[in-house]
Amino acid sequence: MRREGSPFQGLGTVALKELSDNLSSARMFVLELLIVLTALAALYGAIDNLRQNTAEDPFLLLRLFTVDRAPLPSFVAILGFLIPLMAIGLGFDSVNSEHNRRTLSRILAQPIYRDALLMGKLVAGLATLSINLAALWLMVIGLGLIFLGVPPGGEEIARSLAFLVVAIFYAGVWLALAMLLSIVFRSPATAALVALGIWLFLAVLWPMLAPALAQVIAPPDPRYAELGLQTPDTAIWAQTLSRLSPNHLFGEAMLAVLSPTTRSLGPVFIDQLRGAVMGAPLPFGESLIIAWPQTVALIAGTIVLFVAGYIVFQRQEVRA
After folding, report:
1. How many C-beta neighbours within 10 Å does residue 284 have?
2. H helices within 149-270, ranges in order?
């Protein structure tokens, strides 16, 4: 039967309702509190370290994001670890909870298609994550102004905004994954456990497995080993396999955007250094070019996971 009207009829209604539920939920409040407290601790250590370098560093604001102080990691490292938790916490029961409450068939009985329902939940989740990440970004800017007393320059603001955009795309990958699992599994607990298992595998185990697999695919050359160097083919394979993890892509993009002196994210050969002034910062546009492939990969991952969930959801029986 051919349906009438736009498939996105009711999208705004679903998105606003889900956004309201997300922002007012106790689960979201706990996740926000965890991230804010951890981020404040990391920023306190970074500010304490940077007070001695106020007159020396032209990118003082950016160093707030990347400087760490033992035993806490940097602000960016903490976000790379906690953003997936927030996204998974938003999406692991987005669809299966409607099944379990027997409300899905009632929603679809209204003039709302499955397209609008699923897209509305994704838009609301991304809006919730964007609001929280923007609040954290403003917190970093404000604390830097208060405790360092140095106003940021235009390029620093632009680079920090690029950080915010990439962080939202990174959160989108995990949100789309959590929503896919909430469609596949009717039990929210199962969906949450599988999502957390995938996150732990990609964040903890995959960085150790990727170099080992690279050595199997491209065995190291003994001549390079005698010189204490890594075989180029092995290094390229290790980096390629590592980039299957969203965590690695996020880390590389942050390195390019927040560290202006970064000139390459892969193996650097001698002929690539001709004419380069080592230690000189790159223009903002060139840093964006370096981070662009990682950013596109995060966007593509979000789209692929959402499309997979969309296809599965369209084939599901909603009356059960």
Report:
1. 16
2. 154-184, 188-200, 206-217, 222-226, 232-242, 246-258
